[in-house]
Amino acid sequence: MGDLYALDFDGVICDSCGESSLSAVKAAKLRWPSLFEGMDSATEHWTVDQMYTVRPVVETGYENLLLVRLLLEMKVPSIRTSSVAEGLTVEGILENWSKIKPVIMEEWGESRDALIDLFGKVRDEWMENDLATWIGANRFYPGVPDALKFASSRIYIVTTKQSRFADALLRELAGVSIPPERIYGLGTGPKVEVLKQLQKKPEHEGLTLNFVEDRLATLKNVIKEHELDGWNLYLGDWGYNTTKEREEAANIPRIRMLGLSDFTKKLK
Fold it and tell me: Using CA atoms, how far apart are residues 128 and 151, in angstroms rounded to an integer?
């Protein structure tokens, strides 16, 4: 009957870490200008470099702002306001982000919605003022644009990224047009709920259901939902995950590890 693929975007289709880190620094400068007073460019570059290492903890884009500020507080004692920054390491962030995040949100008096709005606004302005540079700060994983263009499977994008950014990148960078109703972005509900919606659509009856994700935590959430037992679950080993997470996934019977070349072949 054929296949349906629900694909995460960041870390499966697109390596957006460069763009999201730079956007987060731009947004952090607007949100907390005093942090950056007298900040040298070397410290700023260090922060962007470290963002590549801590990227696996990000579930939703606004968390990049929190990470930028936390990394700066770790590096520069004079601007430190959070109780967790002293002695914290990048490894510590990778291990304990789910515990650290609510603490710093409260200590800094931040709201999720306000940070989401700011992050989206900064990206919109960057795209409006200099689309080529914004596009250029992203890259698609090798072979993925062609695999999407020539896919014989039914493709859906299921992402925590705002839909307009995923759509712009697909069109401008990959030359791929995916109908907007097949892009489920931020605000369409948790991924487990989107998967439930997709499997209930009458036109999907008889299709083999596949979900490709780079976050182990998301796949574990799917496993908890018995209603979603019919999905094949794949963890992309080229995305934003750690060696430790890949080792854990290899021991979970429901999850299959997937390499990039096998992924592109499956779509075609």
Answer: 31
